[in-house]
Amino acid sequence: METRVSEIILAVDEPIKATRCTEMGTIGCHTDGSKCLTHDLWEELGNQIHLFLSSVSLHDILERKLSPRLPCLQ
Fold it and tell me: How far is CA 11 from CA 16, 21, 28, 29, in A?
């Protein structure tokens, strides 16, 4: 079984999220229970990051097998 990058991040108790919103409850991030304007956008980005990191193994990184999926930004 290959170790996934997402498993490592979660094992060290690092959340994979793109929003800076604090968890105020199940409804939203504001004290009145509502969500901020961009909450859903950033929450979905966090979900996509998690999905991507779940698809990448340590072996992929060591073998540099991410190149076809990600352009090298230099």
Answer: 11, 22, 26, 25
